[in-house]
Amino acid sequence: MNAPLDMEKAAPAAFYLPHGDECTVFAAAHANRLPVLLKGPTGCGKTRFVTHMANRLARPLYTVACHDDLSAADLIGRYLLKGGETVWVDGPLTRAVREGAICYLDEVVEARKDVTVVLHPLTDDRRILPVDRTGEEIAAAPGFMLVASYNPGYQNILKTLKPSTRQRFVALEFDFPAPEHEVPVVVRESGLEEARVQPLVRLANKLRGLKGQDLEEGVSTRLVVYAATLIATGMPVERAVSVAMVEPLTDDADVKRGLLDLVLAVYG
Ligand code: ADP
């Protein structure tokens, strides 16, 4: 049973085109109170997916973009001075735990080590959040779910998830969509007609082929949407592709020339 909720507090409706059974798996994990880990490159639809599912499950969503300075206190809360008084202010994780919301920790490996300590009692069947500062131990309200994402492509030995943490999650793998999925996504997001989106997606896949050789990471669906959006509002194709799909990928002049050759191969 979920905590009663009015739809007004739920995450906003968001268009999401599934590439497999990820919606079914997520809903089953939620129904069974299991946390979910989304693995995949940046800009391939993970955040959109979580927003879509939070709306479908009628849950509020708290999203936290993790960074290397993010500590457990940023998630749990802290005492703040307000009008001469010290008051406790819940952080996003505590709010989600109390309200039975979904808490999405984007790029969780970036966060400081003390964050994982907080996640452990929440991700097993205890489902509690110990708040040391206030002495509280908050039981997660029905409907609460922890979702985390990370990008296994960033090969940073210091920043991988420890097995003891990752083995607490049901994990779903994400990747850039196949062309037959990416084309309708880009059409829908940008408003550009299908015949003009097709070569952009073809180009994106050629650029993705360079990952590991010249590029650290392939061009994201987000960037293809940017390029298509700029084209739809009148920017010449060549310029839009250059600013949205080439420049964001590299600073190296030789690599850039190589990428522009691929652009010519598609559009030339
Ligand atoms: P991530 O969280 O993986 O970095 P996002 O969820 O922000 O990526 O996705 C970037 C953009 O790509 C979204 O804003 C959306 O326009 C588009 N997108 C990617 N995949 C999908 C999909 N399956 N359905 C709808 N939009 C998608």
From TrEMBL:
Q: Which PANTHER family does the record associate with it?
A: DENITRIFICATION REGULATORY PROTEIN NIRQ, MOXR FAMILY PROTEIN
Q: Which Pfam families match?
A: AAA_5, CbbQ_C
Protein name as annotated: Nitric oxide reductase NorQ protein
ATPase dynein-related AAA domain spans which residues? Answer: 35-169
Query: Which keywords annotate this record?
Result: ATP-binding, Nucleotide-binding
> Member of which family?
Belongs to the CbbQ/NirQ/NorQ/GpvN family.
Per the UniProt record, the lineage of the source organism begins with: Bacteria, Pseudomonadati, Pseudomonadota, Alphaproteobacteria, Hyphomicrobiales
Which residue range or ranges hold the CbbQ/NirQ/NorQ C-terminal domain?
182-265
Which InterPro entries does this entry report, sorted A to Z? Answer: ATPase_dyneun-rel_AAA, CbbQ/NirQ/NorQ/GpvN, CbbQ_C, P-loop_NTPase
